[in-house]
Amino acid sequence: MPPEVEVTTDETVLVVDDEVNLRKVLGTLLRRAGYSVRTAGDGIEALEVLSRESISVIVTDLKMPRMDGLALLKKIRSQRPDIPVILITAFGTVDRAVGAIKAGAFDFITKPFDRNEIKQIIAKAAQQYRLNQREVIPSEEEDLGPVDHAMGQRFGMVGSSPEMNQVYSIIERVANTPSTILITGESGTGKELVARALHENSDRKNQSFIRINCAAIPKDLVESELFGHERGAFTGAVNSKPGRFELANRGTLFLDEVSEIPLEIQVKLLRALQENQFERVGGVRTIDVEVRLIAATNQDLQQLIAEGRFREDLFYRLNVVPVALPPLRNRGHDIPAIIRHAIVRAAGRLGRAKPMMEDATLEALCQYSWPGNIRELENVVERMVLLSDNTTFGISDLPPEVLKGIQREVIGNDNASMDLEPGVFSLKEAVRQGRERIERELISRALEETGQNVTRAAQALEISRKSLQLKMKDLGFRDTDQTEDS
Ligand SMILES: Nc1ncnc2c1ncn2[C@@H]1O[C@H](COP(=O)(O)OP(=O)(O)OP(=O)(O)O)[C@@H](O)[C@H]1O
Ligand SMILES: [Mg+2]
Fold it and tell me: What is the DSSP code string of 261-299?
């Protein structure tokens, strides 16, 4: 399933249909989904609206008086190719749907409507419209650094999606407080970046920011890393040594991968947090500290609590202010900006000229699900900058595993015959295969419903018997025609 794309209200969808009822139904559905809606009764009216207003997506019926949907589509393609057009077709009219895609429609929706499908298609179309409005690579004068806000950057983070804006506003509100923060999010979503932003925007910023990665420390050394040890406390403790808590005194202590702290140390951590006191390993002196604690995890702590692997009381002590970082696939419209940012950085670091990127390549990268989130994106971009000699990145410059991932997501992986060779991948090919799949599906259904009667199936599909037979041959259907009078 394609990721849900979030909707902002500054997007206007133009609904074109001669039926008032249909305009109403679609209008209500789209308004509820957060879009502004304009309507028109036919193609001519639609073009009038378009000349006056800023429209992001057009949804149009096919059959209309004066100017029909296909004619409107052609006009839009030539005058405003940046606006995606979605056609409404009756269920079963395969040929027309296919014709529509060939004529450049973004997609089609079938009557009767499936609300979720419509919302998804419109959201994707709106995303496409946004992509069409953006330049991928910043111009020379617009570079990193001072353009913080212009590039949607805050606290060194790129992205202006509603999800990220929420993160920024939490940072703003809590950075300069002593409250404990628990940052959650998949690997590579920017947890450490947020922790640093919190520190940098507090009045502790001139004190130390101490990070401890609890996953990287052998279990039996976690306690001494956190709280320090006295000389001779254990084999190897030749000298006494302060722990991270002491080092972070008056500053910020960042407990990364906090789920990895062994249970028996969790008790000691809880006490240190509650009383601001602890003893070094092997020590008798109680040490007082004043530390602001930030913890991060990519694990589901509630789940770990249920499994008895994390203490509930510690969880509540850490989870005073939760900050949940969204996975990249849930904030699709941040992807172009993050790619742009990553390209500028990688090119700078590697001393290369900033490459450009073809629309199709950017589109493909926006389709990818980014399981490794921003870290993966940065690595992919760096590899492309490093390995490609092209000044403009095409689809073929994408690393193979990304191509494979996109193929899987765009055309589905449920059919082995759809595995494409990496490198020959193209979105056109994906669309062709997607279309074939729809045709195959509709034809099978029609044949099944009519007991393999090709004549009646053709009627149901609203195509001629002859073209159905041709199509069946093309798609490799067996000829099991049960039409009596054939
Ligand atoms: N919003 C963002 N804008 C730009 N770069 C980002 C953003 N978020 C993260 N990054 C970059 O992505 C990389 C991963 O970020 P970070 O290390 O903070 O993630 P993490 O959640 O701590 O990952 P892990 O769980 O793997 O430790 C870093 O190079 C960071 O600079
Ligand atoms: Mg991290």
Answer: S-HHHHHHHHHHHHHSEEE-BT--SEEE---EEEEEESS
- Full-model pTM: 0.61
Tokens (6 digits) for 401: 């595993």
Question: Distance (Å, rounded) from C-alpha 213 to C-alpha 297?
Answer: 10
Give the span between the Cα atoms of 429 and 438, in whole angstroms.
Answer: 14
Among 42-51, 299-308, 475-484, top mean pLDDT goes to 299-308
What are the tens digits of pLDDT across the range 150-184? 445 788 899 888 889 899 999 999 999 999 999 99
Is the CB of 378 within 6 Å of ligand 1?
Answer: yes
Q: Map tokens 């306690």 to a residue.
A: 223
Which residues surround the ion ligand 2 when the cut-off is CB under 5 Å?
191-192
Rounded to whole angstroms, the Cα distance separating 158 from 189 reads 11
Contact between 256 and 214 (Cβ < 8 Å): yes
Which ligand is in closest contact with the Cα of 372? 1
What is d(CA 401, CA 72) in angstroms, rounded to the nearest whole number?
Answer: 39
pLDDT tens per residue across span 106-140: 888 877 778 888 888 898 888 878 776 653 333 33
Give the number of whichever ligand sits closest to the CA of residue 374: 1
Characterize 459-478 residue by residue with b for buried, 16 or more Cβ atoms within 10 angstroms of its Cβ, and e for exposed.
Answer: bbbebebeebbebbeeeebe
310 Cβ neighbours under 8 A, 6+ residues apart: 259, 263, 266, 301, 304
**Count of residues for the chain?**
486
Pocket test for ligand 1, best of 160, 375, 381 (most atoms within 8 A of CB): 375
CA of 30 to the centre of ligand 2 (A): 39
Contacts of 401 (CB under 8 A, 6+ apart): none
Domains and CATH numbers, the chain: 12-133 (3.40.50.2300), 162-324 (3.40.50.300)
pLDDT in tens, 430-451: 556 656 767 787 788 888 888 8
Residues 377 and 119: their CA atoms lie apart, in Å, by 27
**How far is Cα 389 from Cα 367, in angstroms, rounded to an integer?**
24
Ligand closest in space to the Cα of 190: 1
Can you say how many angstroms the Cα of residue 324 is from the centroid of all Cα atoms in its chain? 15
Tell me if residue 225 falls in helix, strand or coil. helix
C-beta of residue 372 within 8 angstroms of C-beta of residue 358? no
CA of 252 to the centre of ligand 1 (A): 19
Phi, psi of 113 (to 5 degrees): -75, 145
471: confidence class by pLDDT, cuts 50, 70, 90: confident
Please state, in angstroms and as integers, the Cα–Cα distance from residue 454 to each residue in 444, 446, 480, following that order.
Answer: 11, 9, 9
Tell me which residue has its CA closest to atom 28 in ligand 1: 375
